[in-house]
Predict the structure.
Amino acid sequence: MFDLKQLQALARLFYSVEGAGFQIGFVFLGLGSTVFSYLWLRSSYIPKLLAGWGIFASLVMAIVTLAVMLFPRLGEALGLTYMAPMFFYEVGLGLWLLIKGIRAPI
């Protein structure tokens, strides 16, 4: 059937495909979150600054993840630091909704 080297190569292939799948998912997550943040901005349910930060953070996540897919050495240099703006947006939005709630326009 398969010798040891072929099985190891197959395992490395599946491992790299899993990483690429996560990166593709992060690109779509960033793009979807950009649209979602834009809708928050247009609705005026949350402060415009928070919604604007969400658009910025989402675009950073989508664009840099795409750049990491194209230039893998960039990913080695950055690690996950480019996702920090998204972390602060998600935590800030969650706290705002938990504490203040939605400010519905009249």
